[in-house]
Design goal:
CATH superfamily of the largest domain in chain A: SLC41 divalent cation transporters, integral membrane domain
Number of domains of chain A: 2
Oligomer: homodimer
Radius of gyration of chain A: 25 Å
Strand content of chain A: under 5%
Distance between the termini of chain A: 71 Å
CATH topology of the largest domain in chain A: Tetracycline Repressor, domain 2
Largest interface: A-B, 101 and 101 residues
Chain lengths: 266, 266
């Protein structure tokens, strides 16, 4: 790759070899557009050469196109994380689009969410007896759900960003699982004495601590598996984060917490 | 703005006026970098001219710089939404960085989250009497919390994207609030008969419906106010989304639902 600017600025008797980039950013025609943009940037080149399997030059991607790609991908990621429908909802347009169209992009995910919410009420209801006997257990349902979700969201962010620039899930999985276990242990170790101190019930505190450990560790796993599944299905891995992952994780957290609690408190 | 490519491709006797872009993308030196990148893209130009208050040319931003800006901003937005600490955590590096450093970037937000979680348990506990009398109320705590959160996240996405490209909150506020009211009403109207049908208690169903309406409407408001506050304080509005907004919203949803329920179920 040699830019016209560098060509014009070169000495009259310099060879092309002296002004060109000997290791230009190249991508295959099948490369995902976001990964291609990263490649160009990594080389500090404004453009990007596309070559076929034999290394023959196929075409050049100009900088304007690369920038458009990056912005579109960014809007898409955020829209999908935010629970907007599909690609039509680049949030820039969404922020000024008309009311009916706006609702149309938002309501599908919310209806899925409503179904998940009703399911969550059913799951809590399955532990009615334990809750009747010890109402204190009900206090910590939103706490466990929220924290497991926060841990899962961190992992999703990491995995989705990794996937979009070509870092496979496998390369981060082990370290990320260890992180999840470490974070789960930490939250359990802090929450146990805190709960005993504030509410004075060691059994409930133990249930909360164990559930936090289990739910946060499992949240890490779910947050890696969902984007990976979507990526394998050829869909944008971001779909495996955001609202869908939150529902799945919330339902798991409720079951983990209340079954632990039932085992301990009886 | 005239690119060397266009200059070389022009006729020998064409004037510069004929090949230049008569309305080039210009920004002031104080313009935020992300907004500047959008301006270049909007014009379909690879570069961007920086001019001072009197319209005098100050400098040119090359395409590589603009691309770097876009990628950095994207990583930053996602990292902050995901609950990572600060700017150091561009998730691309985060996905391969070492365990200790990774935990260091994640734990601060989780400790804030733990404090919020304990507070949420305290809030649920404030309604202990109502829960003792009618345990069915406890079933719907995660449902209301989850749905209000999903609605708020959609609004945040929209507002944060709007702010980063220069659409002020004021321009979207009214329409967004109307959306929030519409979505709240819809979820209330669907959930009421569904709850009566599945759990057979009209009082609890009424409490769930009214709470969903109120919580989703207020979630829209919170989701606009928080990023706006951060933006006014000169911080990245994305801080007003993600984990912090979730805690604030969850606590509000719990209070809204359980006080509505106490009023109705007594």
């Amino acid at each position: 790759l040699v830019t016209i600017e560098r060509l014009l600025a070169a000495d009259r008797d310099a060879t092309v070899a002296a002004v060109m980039d000997p290791d230009p950013p190249v991508v295959a025609p099948g490369t995902h557009q976001e990964r291609a943009a990263w490649a160009a940037l990594h080389h500090g080149e404004p453009g990007l050469a596309v070559v076929d399997d034999d290394g023959r030059f196929v075409g050049l991607i100009p900088p304007q196109r690369l920038m458009t790609v990056l912005l579109t991908e960014h809007d898409q990621d955020l829209a999908r994380l935010g629970g907007f429908l599909g690609t039509a909802s680049a949030a820039r347009q969404a922020s000024t689009e008309r009311l009916r169209k706006r609702l149309w992009h938002r309501i599908p995910w919310l209806l899925v969410g409503l179904a998940g919410a009703m399911l969550s009420a059913g799951l809590v209801g399955a532990f009615e007896d334990a809750l009747e006997r010890q109402v204190l257990l009900a206090f910590f349902v939103p706490a466990v759900v929220y924290l497991a979700d926060a841990v899962g969201t961190q992992t999703e962010t990491l995995v989705v960003r990794g996937l979009s620039v070509g870092v496979p899930v496998g390369r981060v999985a082990v370290r990320e699982l260890v992180s999840g276990l470490a974070i789960g242990s930490l939250l359990a170790l802090i929450s146990f004495p805190l709960t005993v101190w504030l509410w004075g019930d060691a059994d409930v505190a133990l249930a909360v601590g164990l559930a936090l450990f289990a739910a946060c560790s499992i949240a890490t796993l779910v947050a890696m598996v969902l984007p990976w599944v979507f990526s394998r299905l050829g869909a944008d891995p971001v779909y495996g984060s955001g609202p869908l992952a939150t529902v799945v994780q919330d339902l798991l957290s409720i079951v983990i917490y209340l079954s632990t609690a039932t085992l301990i408190v009886g």
